[in-house]
Every structure is written in structure tokens, then in C-alpha cells.
Amino acid sequence: MKISPPQVLSDYFNSANDGRIDDAAACFASDALVHDENHDHKGAEEIHAWIKDTTQKYHPKSEVSSIHSIEDAFVATATVSGTFPGSPVQLQYTFTVHNDKITHLSIQ
């Protein structure tokens, strides 16, 4: 049985691509954990700061090519472009979602 990705994943990518920092941060649970560039960002305040810093520094845009489920997670593959060395790059976003909020995100 194919499982559709939760709406919050589309909300996150759309908000992030539009530079809507507060809306992107609102997609996360208050105790969520994000792992990106070998750093962990835990909780609403740190995740908001991570989104704000990343958006202002790199102006990233993600073009999602696929999202599939693996056990209790969703894996999105996206081409990410912006003002960072090596742009564009292909990245995998692994999300865990609970109660329509992202509880964990790992970007590789």
C-alpha cells in the first residue's frame, strides 16, 4: 500500500522556497530535532534560527523530485540550488512526522 506524504512536507518546502521563515519553522514540533551540515538544531528556537540563518546566507531553493516512505519516515530527494559552493546539489531529506508536525529532519 502506497502512503501519501503528509501535507506538512509540502508546506515546509513551499515556505522554505518562498523565504517564509516563520511559516517554515511552524512546520516543526516544539521539541523537533534537525541534523544538517554535521550540526544538530533542537527545539523551536534553534530550528527557527537555523532556517533564518540558512535562508539569509544561501537563499536555497529545493526542487523535490521524489518522496517515498521507509518504515516510519519519509525520504525526499531534492535538487537544491542557492548561493553556496557547489550549487546545485542533490540532497536527501529524511523526515519523521507526528501529529502533522515534523519531529525529526536529517539532511544529507
Task: Describe the protein.
- The chain has 108 residues and is an alpha+beta fold.
- The protein has one domain (7-107): Nuclear Transport Factor 2, Chain: A, CATH 3.10.450.50.
- It contains three helices and six strands.
In terms of topology, how is this protein built?
Blueprint: H1 7-17, H2 21-25, E1 28-36, E2 39-42, H3 43-58, E3 61-70, E4 73-81, E5 89-98, E6 101-107
Parallel strand pairs: 1-6
Antiparallel strand pairs: 1-2, 3-4, 4-5, 5-6
Please provide a brief summary of the model.
This protein has about 110 residues and is α+β, with helices and mostly antiparallel strands. It is built from 3 helices and 6 strands; from the N terminus they run H-H-E-E-H-E-E-E-E. The chain has one domain: Nuclear Transport Factor 2, Chain: A (Roll), CATH 3.10.450.
By DSSP (H or I, 4+ residues per run), the number of helices equals 3
Question: In total, how many beta strands?
Answer: 6
Tell me the name of the CATH class.
Alpha Beta
Structural class: alpha+beta
Average pLDDT, to the nearest integer? Answer: 96
What are the segments in which pLDDT stays under 50 over at least 5 consecutive residues?
Answer: none
Query: H/E order of the elements?
Result: HHEEHEEEE
The third-level CATH topology is Nuclear Transport Factor 2, Chain: A
List the strand order in the largest sheet.
Answer: 2-1-6-5-4-3
User: What is the percent of helical residues?
Assistant: 25-40%
Whole-angstrom Rg: 13 Å
Q: Biggest sheet: strands, sense, closure?
A: 6 strands, mixed
**Percent of residues in β-strands:** over 45%
The coarse overall form would be: globular
Number of domains: 1
Distance between the termini: 27 Å
| Oligomeric status | single chain
Q: Using the 3D structure, state the CATH architecture.
A: Roll
